[in-house]
Amino acid sequence: MMVGRLLADSIERRSGVSLWRQIADKILHAIAIGDFTENAALPPEVALAERYGVNRHTVRNAISALVREGVLRAEQGRGTFVLSRKRLSYP
To answer: Are 54 and 89 in contact (CB under 8 A)?
Structure first.
């Protein structure tokens, strides 16, 4: 897992895109390029908030959105993990 790549990009405060959405998109990108594989743990909310210079609740909103989208699962006291993606088989 290359957490460095996930954390390397900063967020744009004046882009017109909400901060939580930008963070969610960065997490999605990290999953898509293989930085986080199935069942991999994400960095703690506090670490992500510190890295991006946002409140922990902003990170929590990003994670909650990805949980609702079926990308992540959050376990209280344990962390946030990448869910497996259903593979489509073609005949």
So the answer is: no
Contacts of 36 (CB under 8 A, 6+ apart): 1, 6, 27, 30, 42, 82
Q: Which of 6, 14, 1 is nearest to 52 (CA)?
A: 6
Is the whole-model pTM more than 0.85? no
> Residue 88 domain-assigned?
no
pLDDT tens for 14-69 read 889 999 999 999 999 999 999 999 999 999 999 999 989 999 999 999 999 999 99
Structural domain containing residue 60: 3-82
How far apart are the C-alpha atoms of 57 and 40, rounded to whole Å? 22
Torsion of CA 73, 78, 19, 61, to 10 degrees: 60
Q: pLDDT at position 22, please?
A: 96
Query: Nearest 5°: phi and psi at 33?
Result: -90, 5
CB count in 10 Å sphere of residue 84: 8
